[in-house]
Design goal:
299 residues, 10-stranded mixed beta sheet, 14 strands, binds magnesium ion, Rossmann fold, alpha/beta, 4-stranded parallel beta sheet, binds threonylcarbamoyladenylate, 8 helices
Length: 299
């Protein structure tokens, strides 16, 4: 990577990576994204030997989750080894680790032959990028290289699970659902998002996932009044669908998650003023989807 930062595809969203032991390269990530220095990065690995090189003693529970869900859209917060520079973890004694499933991500990580720390490849506060075009639109001229691939399959960021507390807690809902995690750890729960402290997951305090347009959550799409500066995304079709500037009716939750950020991105390009998002039940993937939509709708 020669001290440069590289945008690369993963199955969740595109990442912006740097060599985990190169402090100068990591600094470039924070500058390119305008990312607050107190927001730690996720280390991306290609095999379990790399996991051992950057973490301390791993709890048994983490090993169970790894056996079940790696490679895939699950990130584990584990004790950090001394060798990892503190800029990567924003000074925390823990490190978040994930092994992507995406073929190009795996090839890239194997070629790097070292863990790669990477946040999502977007300007801080904006929706994560799920296409290389969205990465280019946000970061053109700020990064050394962009690896092109298809649109990210999942479309929402990984699930983050803190394995350093007595009972693991979900810090960020994601593609690996609460229900799936409960099959391995029945007592796992979602952290109370309001009381997540600076220590536990600093990134969650920052403004997130917001397009320029105003995002409005609606439970009853049949009540929306369409106009040529509004857009709609959801499962049900609202009345006068042709009158919206942009509209996307999704087959199911998977398609809703897969297309949400790309839809936000397109609405911004089309200078849409208001995006209506249909609310869904917070079960399965619906939990992560509603988390992102709610954050996008906050001021
Ligand atoms: O799917 C994903 O996770 C994508 C792809 C590129 O892997 N990455 C991603 O990174 O979403 P980012 O930086 O946008 O979000 C990382 C989240 C933040 O909420 C951050 O606070 C949390 O993980 N995090 C990172 N390290 C942590 C740690 N040591 N303890 C607690 N939370 C941590
Ligand atoms: Mg991000």
């Amino acid at each position: 990577m020669h001290g440069e930062i590289v945008a690369f595809p993963t199955e969740t969203v595109y990442g912006l990576g740097a060599h985990i032991f190169n402090v100068e390269a990591i600094r470039k990530i924070f500058i390119a994204k305008g990312r607050p220095a107190d927001n730690p990065l996720i280390a991306h690995i290609s095999d379990l030997a790399q996991l051992e090189s950057i973490t301390g003693e791993n709890p048994i529970i983490a090993r169970k989750l790894i056996a079940q869900f790696f490679p895939g859209p699950l990130t584990l917060v584990l004790p950090k080894s001394e060798s990892v520079p503190s800029i990567a973890t924003a000074g925390l004694k823990t490190i978040a680790v994930r092994m992507p499933k995406h073929t190009i991500a795996q090839q890239f990580l194997r070629a790097c032959n070292v863990p790669v720390v990477a946040p999502s490849a977007n300007i801080s506060g904006r929706p994560s990028s799920t296409t290389w075009r969205a990465v280019r639109a946000d970061l053109y001229g700020r990064i050394g290289c962009l690896l092109k691939a298809d649109q990210s399959q999942v479309g929402l960021e990984s699930t983050v699970v803190d394995c350093t507390s007595e009972v693991p807690v979900i810090l960020r809902a994601g593609a690996v659902t609460l229900e799936a995690l409960q099959t391995v750890i029945p007592e796992i729960s979602l952290a109370d998002q309001k009381s997540l402290t600076v220590i536990k997951s600093p990134g969650l305090r920052h403004r997130h996932y917001s397009p320029s347009a105003m995002v409005v959550i609606c439970q009853y799409p049949q009540l929306i009044v369409a106009s040529n500066d509004t857009a709609y995304i959801g499962l049900l079709t609202p009345p006068h669908a042709e009158a919206f500037k942009r509209i996307l009716i999704c087959r199911d939750l998977e398609e809703y998650a897969h297309t949400l950020y790309q839809f936000f991105h397109e609405c911004d390009l089309a200078q849409v003023k208001t995006i209506y998002c249909q609310s869904v039940s917070e079960k399965g993937l619906g939990l992560a989807l509603m988390d992102r939509i709610k954050r996008a709708s906050e001021d």
